[in-house]
Amino acid sequence: MHSLKIIIGDSDAGQRKELKKMLNAMGHVVVGEASNSLETLKILRRLTPDLAFITHNSTLRDGEHVAEIIEEEKLCAVILLVEPGYVGLYGRSENETMIPYLRKPVLAATLEPIVNIAVSRFREIIKLEEEINKLKDTIMTRKLVEKAKGLLMSHQGLSETEAFRRIQKQAMNKRTSIKSIAQAIILAYGA
Asked: Which residues form the Response regulatory domain (predicted)?
């Protein structure tokens, strides 16, 4: 995996320094550090890193909440750093997200695999969401074209093929999408 831009959100400066040293040794760049949740989110939104490490401990109690915000808003991949006695709150239902976590003290041997998994998983989710959005747009376009064809057929007495060709031709002539032409036809007929 190529060099990643990483942010560390941990109230313990010593632990941030140690984690930064391990990440730098792996070839990654720590572009920001924060000691509290609010600061972490501000830095994240400003620097758009590839990965964030967020600590959940007695000082930074809302670490899980910050991790959820990062994941919900798709800001970057996230790994939760937890104390040895941590019992995760995730997995309560199948709709909840699963944020990977590492127990402190972080060991270099466990760090690299979880970084790779977290970033790969995040990228895959983004890719899948883009595909879903494309499919939704394709379905919407088809519905609009069908409706526009129906309007042309009923108002202008065209066959289905003729109606579709007219939509295609207008899209080419106006150098716009079939979807835009279909929407214009629907609007013109007030349907």
From this structure: 5-119
